[in-house]
Amino acid sequence: MIKKINLFALIALATLLFACSSDEDKKNPLTITNDIDQMVGWVQHPTIIKGDAHSGKYMIKVDSILPYGLGLYLIAEDFPTKIAKSINASIWGKLTKLNDSISLVIDLSSKGQSITYNSSNFNNYIKKTGEWEKVDVSINIPKNLPLDATLKIYIWDPQKTNTTAFGDDFEITFIE
User: Fold this and answer.
1) What is the pLDDT of residues 79-92, one digit of tens each?
2) Residue numbers of the domain that contains 153
3) pLDDT tens across 135-166, in order?
4) pTM for this prediction
5) CATH assignment at residue 56
6) Rounded distance between C-alpha atoms, residue 155 and residue 103, angstroms
7) CB atoms within 10 A of CB 26
């Protein structure tokens, strides 16, 4: 008798769960997140530092000595190029001094040639030094993207200014 009740309860629960799922749930984009703390112990990179992170204890530091921050690097065959039409990347950023050089970069390239590129300047989002603000950047994925294309997302200070930028809590979303 107990087995019949448990089986009935399991079937009822499964029916309820599937009945409540909508088409919207099935269209959820693929999202990759990294709060930098996940990298500690896996990767030794000079831009990962311990400090006043947005979440956790670790963050990325970019300055005049290390103008490229640790970022995401994926080959097209490893992300959903068949279903995704665009990519949105965000990071929580903080500056020691307002600066119009430091950006969050998203780049798709193949064989050393950029296919599509976009960047968002930290100053467009961060209006006060020492405070964390979310920085976003997006690109459209071109049709017929070569499978050897690489996706790179990172913080960059091309002018190697005397400002220090910090980044934490990457979120990369592949949007249908």
Assistant:
1) 887 788 999 999 99
2) 28-175
3) 999 999 998 899 899 999 999 999 998 899 99
4) 0.80
5) 2.60.120.260
6) 6
7) 7
